[in-house]
């Protein structure tokens, strides 16, 4: 484009080629705006790390391995909220992935086209529902169900089994890791389903048709043709959902139970990094060690979400490259 | 050599009957599970919408829109929260949209595949998926703590950081769809590159870019976490963006955790309003896209 614009012939009047056309100015403007995006992210990282510096320097490396969070003795460690973040997201994904996969399979292979597009659109729309709505639903609908039915039943069934009893111990509050995991699962199912459906659909129809032509059943086509073909994209979508779950604040804060203990019980109250920040920040005066510890946790969360996004991009990009090559 | 695994049955005629049955049963099981998964997902998501409607609709009265938040039992409304949400969302788009548009233009028209552009693209995606509470924490440190008070401006700034990456992405995608021949036509007529971009490319892609802006509004309007530490919330009527400002999601958060019946009712109705607003924008966008592509 530049090349064609800057090819004046000798015969052309000089005032046209020398005319100031504002290109340099506009170019500078857009490049600077682009760079400002980098500056914003750099500033966020800098603020988190410098804000958390007091905590890092006070506790040293032990900040990362201490499970104590005690505002009274001014002793803070990152392990409990990091554990809560990873455990609740893991539980959420374990529940969400099969549901999302089943739904995507149904949408792409089993449903009649018209119904598929309606349900597919509904599921996609629900990915846009604000997370506080999921939190409220969890708090008012799911927590009573967990407290009155799920937890007593689980204790009744597994309470005397040696290993499983540890998983179901604790008072039936209804809040806790599993409830948070369930709410997170409900929240990320629409987006994971949408990604899976898109990768399944992006597979060349010829592959699908030739498999059916050989007499494969729908499940065999899914398991042996579609899944191997779209593996990368599926993993990318799952990791993307994981990133969303780990950084989620509002949906979790309502149902996690606000407790900084680590235990095996699925029903024990816990905290994630995001919920701890949301709950304790209002009680952290500026310049305090507690605020600094929260910022340090923020820096850790930032690092976790950075790594997750990076990994998901690698998988999604590989999937896309494959789609481009084969189609 | 490249024999597909599922044709094994055909190789052994004597066992094909058993294998065919086995394959059929596995297929029935798998499709059955798939139906079950779909039904669970639809049931749970339907349950959320139904809970919202059931609990939210009874509180949908006129006084909700005419009164500001008040103490429990005094018949307050959500007027100040609704207006606060509109103001902060509006300002965040005013801040975020131009920046997002220019960055999108940089990525699509100038940067292409350069190292800088790839970095900007990746960082913009990082901002897109950054935990929203960290955005709030960041704005608190740079815009609230130095000034000594919470403000509507800082709330809008936090929201604009969430809106911008969405607009960057859609702008870039939409500009890339504009055919090169249109650019060449503009250049051939002697237009400067910036004029070609703004008056031909952006004009051609304006539908798609508007889609991005609408999606950004929908995303930002329902965000709670970035506002907790920035605009804080305010129970009084206030249009002063330099002071703490109410917003619908923060009001919902405060009311839902309370023990008062009428506050909880207003939390549900507020939640219904936010969800309906966000869903309407999304439906408009999707129907608009479908209409535009035919």
CATH architecture descriptor name of chain A:
Orthogonal Bundle
Examine the coordinates and then state which fold CATH places here, giving the name of the CATH topology of chain A: MetI-like fold
In total, the number of strands of chain A is 2
Largest interface between protein chains, with number of residues from each side: A-B, 98 and 96 residues
Distance between the termini of chain B: 44 Å
Under the CATH scheme, the architecture of the largest domain in chain B is: Orthogonal Bundle
CATH superfamily of the largest domain in chain B: MetI-like
Strand content of chain A: under 5%
| Strand fraction of chain B | under 5%
CATH class of chain A: Mainly Alpha
Radius of gyration of chain A: 26 Å
Number of helices, counting only DSSP H or I runs of 4 residues or more of chain A: 14
Rg over CA atoms of chain B: 26 Å
Give the number of DSSP strands of chain B. 0
Q: What is the chains' assembly state?
A: heterodimer
InterPro entries (chain A): MetI-like, MetI-like_sf, Phosphate_PstC, Phosphate_Transport_Permease
Protein name (chain A): Phosphate transport system permease protein
Transmembrane segments (chain A): 24-49, 79-107, 119-143, 164-189, 294-316
Function (chain A): Part of the binding-protein-dependent transport system for phosphate; probably responsible for the translocation of the substrate across the membrane.
């Amino acid at each position: 484009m530049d090349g064609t614009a800057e090819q004046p012939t000798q015969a052309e009047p000089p005032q046209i080629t020398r005319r100031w056309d504002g290109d340099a100015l506009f170019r500078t403007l857009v490049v600077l705006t682009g760079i400002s995006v980098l500056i914003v992210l750099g500033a966020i990282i800098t603020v988190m790390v410098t804000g958390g510096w007091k905590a890092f320097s006070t506790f040293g490396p032990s900040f990362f391995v201490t499970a104590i969070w005690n505002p009274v003795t001014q002793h803070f460690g990152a392990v409990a909220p990091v554990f809560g973040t990873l455990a609740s997201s893991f539980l959420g994904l374990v529940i969400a992935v099969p549901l999302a996969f089943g739904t995507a399979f149904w949408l792409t292979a089993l449903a009649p086209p018209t119904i598929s597009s309606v349900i597919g659109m509904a599921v996609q729309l629900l990915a846009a529902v604000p997370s506080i709505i999921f939190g409220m639903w969890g708090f008012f609908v799911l927590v009573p169900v967990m407290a009155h039915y799920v937890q007593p039943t689980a204790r009744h069934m597994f309470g005397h089994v040696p290993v499983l009893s540890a998983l179901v111990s604790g008072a039936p509050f209804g809040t806790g890791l599993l409830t948070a995991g369930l709410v997170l699962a409900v929240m990320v199912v629409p987006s994971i389903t949408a990604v899976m459906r898109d990768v399944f659909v992006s597979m060349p129809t010829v592959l699908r048709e030739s498999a059916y032509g050989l007499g494969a059943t729908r499940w065999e086509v899914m398991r042996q043709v579609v899944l191997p073909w779209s593996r990368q994209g599926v993993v990318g979508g799952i990791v993307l959902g994981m990133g969303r779950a780990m950084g989620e604040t509002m949906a979790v804060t309502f149902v996690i139970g606000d407790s900084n203990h680590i235990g095996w019980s699925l029903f024990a109250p816990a905290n994630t990094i995001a919920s701890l920040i949301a709950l304790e920040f209002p009680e952290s005066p500026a310049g305090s060690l507690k605020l600094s510890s929260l910022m340090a946790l923020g820096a850790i969360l930032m690092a976790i979400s950075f790594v997750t996004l990076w990994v998901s991009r690698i998988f999604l990009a590989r999937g896309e490259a494959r789609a481009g090559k084969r189609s | 050599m490249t024999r597909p695994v599922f044709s094994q049955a055909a190789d052994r005629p004597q066992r094909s009957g058993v294998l065919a049955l086995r394959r059929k049963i596995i297929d029935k099981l798998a499709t059955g599970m798939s139906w079950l998964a779909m039904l669970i997902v639809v049931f749970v998501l339907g349950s959320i919408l139904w809970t919202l409607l059931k609990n939210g609709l009874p509180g949908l009265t006129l006084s909700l829109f005419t009164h500001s938040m008040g103490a429990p039992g005094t018949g307050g409304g959500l007027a100040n929260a609704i207006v606060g949400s509109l103001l902060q969302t509006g300002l965040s788009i005013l801040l975020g949209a131009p920046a997002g548009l220019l960055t999108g233009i940089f990525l699509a028209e100038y940067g292409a595949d350069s190292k800088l552009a790839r970095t900007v693209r990746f960082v913009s995606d990082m901002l897109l998926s950054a935990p929203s509470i960290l955005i709030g924490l960041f704005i608190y440190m740079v815009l609230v703590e130095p000034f000594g008070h919470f403000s509507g401006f800082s709330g809008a700034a936090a929201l604009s950081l969430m809106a911008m990456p969405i607009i960057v992405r859609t702008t870039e995608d939409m500009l890339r769809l504009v055919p090169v021949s249109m650019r060449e036509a503009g250049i051939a007529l002697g237009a400067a590159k910036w004029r070609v971009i703004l008056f031909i490319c952006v004009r051609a892609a304006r539908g798609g870019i508007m889609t991005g802006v609408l999606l950004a509004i929908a995303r930002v309007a329902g965000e709670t976490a970035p506002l907790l530490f920035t605009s804080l919330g305010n129970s009084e009527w206030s249009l002063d963006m330099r002071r703490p400002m109410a917003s619908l999601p923060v009001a919902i958060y405060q009311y839902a955790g309370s023990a008062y019946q009428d506050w909880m009712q207003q939390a549900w109705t507020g939640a219904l309003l936010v969800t309906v607003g966000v869903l309407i924008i999304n439906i408009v966008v999707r129907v608009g896209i479908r209409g535009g592509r035919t």
